[in-house]
């Protein structure tokens, strides 16, 4: 029987660290070949362990996956294809830094099986890019966008962040307009989150960099409205796309589908394999330990350098709402009941009704299924909703 | 020699203990008095947002009192964080205690990264019973029992400025925090609050009216910077 599972591959290497970034990465000029070999060994092991016969989607993120050489790109996707019975899924995403984009690299990626690229633009403002220590300059971004426009044959997604330090409403608006001019199929528009432990977090805490949440919220809302006005559908809090261009891989997270995570620091989650208990495994961040294990050890499950977390059904039920309500389609009470074997909570239904009366939620019925979704305005208060659960 | 004396003399030892206890009690009394004043009468808040520009600039200090009375139109108020407004009585009581003993440094509700969750400074534009609507970022108010609509500026005792920035080309006032909305009636205990920086602020246009229970304090004065020193 065929069993397709989504795969996330983490490439934790960057040439430089952006001040706001809290994803795991280490500074490195080039990705070692041994890391790719280790990744493929891990992917093969985890696919077999989870009876995965093919990848449902593949997402290669980082870090900076575009640091991979053309040879490594071919080796990585060729290896993943082999594990997946000789075929790659329709959606294979690879993240690119604008500095690494060239016609040749895009061509190699496409021929290797990449169907979707996600390019981290973040801002068009030169001063902002410098302030947050992005590797790419405004010129790099223009060159990359132009290169994608003329050379990329697959789906193109771009990331933007509202209210980075030094970004004004005007520069943000003009940047978003410029990006929309290239008509990406998909745009992720994130509101900047200042995370503890990041360079930006420390600078904000000490007062060295001012940060204004009000201004940031207002700027993000204007960006959202602009994208919607220009034909993009907001299908998740931070994700917008032209019709039919939703990211299938991300939907696996939001719909609580199984996904395998490979690479140092990567997380994978398999739902309900132990008496209804969900297992979440996060690999070690120690790259030599990771590579050493997957290359040289005889692979025994109990020795895998990873932390295992057992998620109780109650926590999984909370995550069902936390993830599902991020999307415009929301959550379905019948799916909840099938997943968790209990009735849809009455208190939650009451809360939905209350929010519906305030115009922040919709309750719809389609073919006997009941869907509860937050409206675009309601999505702004998702955290408040979750706190009330 | 002195140490020896304290060892030998019971009276001196008692006197020293009495002195220490007096000093500690004095410090505690001072701390309690300051905390009582700061908690129940007067406290300062640092404005870390451009939402109330131009009258209340970024990085200014504002003096607030928790004694609110009946809020007036045009008053500057400090709102409770939205999570604080919906939390249980027990949690709020615990928060008051922790807040008091940590000299206002700790709170369960101070989580700035959630939209609308950190305490915010806004101006009261609509009062209970009003009918209001907005055009071009200016609110038109029909106070309860009156026939005509007036602009918000015509209904207040103390004048204030608002900041309205022209939208970038290709953008209009319906993009972002809206510059217009249709008539709404404010119910009992409902206040409509806005930031003075109308294009760069999240307020009642998004949250809806605020219940009086969610107004934490009333603004008295801008105390810093001195160039902006003024009564509110």
What name goes with the CATH superfamily of chain B? Umud Fragment, subunit A
State the major sheet of chain A: 9 strands, mixed
Q: Give the CA-based shape of chain A.
A: globular
Strand content of chain A: 15-25%
Mean pLDDT of chain A: 92
Radius of gyration of chain B: 24 Å
Task: Indicate the topology.
The complex is a heterodimer of chains A (389) and B (232).
Chain A (H helix, E strand, L loop, with lengths): L3 E8 L1 E2 L11 E2 L5 H17 L4 E9 L7 H14 L8 E5 L6 H10 L3 E7 L3 H6 L6 H14 L3 E8 L6 H13 L4 E6 L7 H8 L6 H17 L3 E4 L2 E3 L6 H7 L4 E4 L4 E8 L2 E7 L3 H10 L9 E6 L1 H12 L6 E2 H8 L5 H12 L3 E6 L2 E6 L1 H4 L2 H7 L1
Parallel strand pairs in A: 1-4, 1-11, 2-3, 4-5, 5-6, 6-7, 7-8
Antiparallel strand pairs in A: 8-10, 9-10, 12-13, 13-14, 15-17, 16-17
Chain B lengths: L1 H7 L1 H31 L2 E5 L12 E6 L10 E4 L2 H4 L3 H13 L18 E7 L4 E5 L2 E5 L7 E2 L29 E5 L4 E5 L9 H4 L2 E2 L3 E10 L5 E2 L1
Antiparallel strand pairs in B: 1-2, 2-11, 3-4, 3-11, 4-9, 5-6, 5-8, 6-7, 9-10, 11-12
Protein traits:
A: 389 residues, alpha/beta, TIM Barrel, Arc Repressor Mutant, subunit A, 2 domains, 3-stranded antiparallel sheet, 24% strand, B: 232 residues, alpha+beta, Umud Fragment, subunit A, 8-stranded antiparallel sheet, 5 helices, 12 strands, 25% helix
What does this structure look like?
The complex is a heterodimer of chains A (389) and B (232). Chain A is of the alpha/beta class and 389 residues long. Chain A has 2 domains: 4-252, TIM Barrel (Alpha-Beta Barrel); 314-388, Arc Repressor Mutant, subunit A (Orthogonal Bundle). Chain A has helices spanning 33-49, 70-83, 103-112, 126-131, 138-151, 169-181, 199-206, 213-229, 248-254, 287-296, 313-324, 333-340, 346-357, 376-379, 382-388; strands spanning 4-11, 13-14, 26-27, 54-62, 92-96, 116-122, 155-162, 186-191, 233-236, 239-241, 259-262, 267-274, 277-283, 306-311, 331-332, 361-366, 369-374. Chain A has a 9-stranded mixed beta sheet with strand order 9-10-8-7-6-5-4-1-11, sandwiched between helices. In chain A, strands 12-13-14 form a 3-stranded antiparallel beta sheet. Chain A has a 3-stranded antiparallel beta sheet with strand order 15-17-16. In chain A, α1 packs parallel to α2 (70-83), α2 runs parallel beside α3 (103-112) and α6 (169-181) runs parallel beside α8. Chain A is globular, with a radius of gyration of 21 Å. Chain B is of the alpha+beta class and 232 residues long. In chain B, strands 1, 2, 3, 4, 9, 10, 11 and 12 form an 8-stranded antiparallel beta sheet that branches. The longest helix of chain B has 31 residues, at 10-40. The relative contact order of chain B is 0.19. Chain B starts with a helix and ends with a strand. Helix content of chain B is 25%, strand content 25%. Chain B has a single domain (3-224), classed as Umud Fragment, subunit A, CATH 2.10.109.10. Classes of the chains: A alpha/beta (389), B alpha+beta (232). Chain A binds chain B through residues 169-170, 173-174, 177, 193-194, 210-215, 217-219, 221-222, 225-226, 229, 358, 377, 380-381, 383-384, 387-388, and chain B through 48-51, 58-59, 82-83, 86, 112-118, 120, 165, 168, 170-171, 174-177, 195, 199-202, 206, 208.
């Amino acid at each position: 029987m065929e069993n397709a599972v989504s795969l996330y591959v983490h490439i934790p290497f960057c040439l430089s660290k952006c001040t706001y970034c809290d994803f795991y990465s280490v500074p490195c000029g080039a990705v070692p070949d041994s890391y790719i070999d280790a990744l493929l060994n891990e992917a093969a092991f985890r696919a077999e362990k989870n009876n995965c016969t093919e990848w449902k989607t593949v997402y290669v993120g980082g870090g900076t996956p575009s640091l991979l050489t053309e040879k490594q790109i071919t080796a990585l996707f060729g290896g993943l294809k082999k594990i997946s019975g000789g075929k790659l899924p329709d959606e294979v995403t690879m993240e690119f830094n604008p500095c690494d984009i060239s016609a040749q690299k895009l061509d190699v990626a496409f021929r290797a099986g990449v169907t979707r690229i996600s390019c981290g633009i973040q801002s068009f403002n030169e001063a902002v890019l410098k302030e947050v220590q992005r590797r790419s300059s405004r010129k790099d971004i223009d060159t990359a966008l132009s290169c994608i426009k003329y050379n990329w044959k697959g789906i193109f997604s771009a990331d933007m962040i509202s209210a980075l330090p030094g970004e004004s409403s005007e520069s943000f608006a003009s940047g978003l307009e410029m990006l929309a001019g290239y008509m990406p199929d998909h745009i992720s528009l994130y509101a900047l989150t200042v995370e503890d432990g990041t360079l930006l977090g420390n600078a904000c805490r000490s007062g060295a960099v001012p940060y204004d949440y009000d201004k940031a919220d207002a700027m993000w809302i204007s960006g959202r409205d602009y994208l919607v006005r220009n034909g993009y559908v907001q299908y998740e809090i931070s994700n917008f796309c032209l019709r039919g261009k939703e990211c299938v891989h991300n939907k696996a997270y939001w719909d609580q589908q199984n996904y395998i995570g490979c690479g140092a620091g990567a997380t994978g989650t398999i739902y309900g394999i132990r008496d209804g208990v969900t297992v979440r495994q996060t690999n070690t961040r120690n790259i030599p330990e990771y590579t050493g294990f997957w290359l040289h050890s005889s692979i025994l499950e109990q020795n895998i350098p990873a932390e295992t977390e057992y998620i109780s059904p109650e926590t999984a039920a909370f995550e069902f709402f936390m993830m599902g309500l991020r999307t415009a389609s929301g959550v379905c009470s019948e799916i909840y009941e099938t997943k968790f074997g209990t009735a849809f909570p009455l208190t939650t239904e009451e809360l939905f009704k209350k929010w519906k009366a305030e115009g922040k939620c919709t309750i719809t019925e389609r073919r006997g299924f009941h869907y509860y979704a937050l409206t675009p305005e309601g999505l702004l208060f998702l955290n408040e909703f979750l706190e009330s659960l | 020699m002195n140490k020896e004396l304290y060892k030998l003399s019971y009276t001196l030892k008692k006197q020293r203990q009495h002195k220490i206890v007096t000093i500690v009690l004095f410090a505690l009394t001072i701390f309690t008095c300051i905390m009582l004043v700061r908690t129940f009468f007067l406290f300062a808040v640092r404005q870390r947002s451009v939402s109330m520009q131009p009258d209340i600039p970024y990085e200014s200090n504002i003096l607030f009192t928790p004694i609110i009375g009946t809020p007036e139109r045009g008053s500057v108020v400090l709102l409770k964080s939205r999570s604080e407004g919906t939390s249980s009585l027990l949690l709020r009581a615990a928060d008051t205690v922790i807040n008091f003993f940590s000299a206002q440094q700790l709170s369960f509700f101070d989580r700035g990264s959630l939209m609308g969750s950190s305490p915010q400074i806004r101006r009261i534009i609509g009062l209970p019973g009003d009918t209001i609507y907005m055009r071009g970022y200016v609110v038109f108010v029909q106070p309860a029992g009156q026939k005509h609509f007036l602009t918000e500026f015509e209904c207040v005792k103390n004048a204030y400025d608002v900041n309205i920035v022209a939208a970038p080309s290709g953008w209009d006032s319906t993009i972002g925090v809206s510059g217009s909305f249709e008539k709404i009636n404010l119910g009992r205990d409902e206040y409509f609050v806005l930031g003075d920086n109308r294009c760069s602020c999240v307020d009642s246009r998004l949250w809806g009216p605020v219940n009086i229970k969610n107004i934490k304090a009333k603004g008295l004065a801008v105390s810093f910077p001195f160039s902006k020193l003024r009564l509110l």
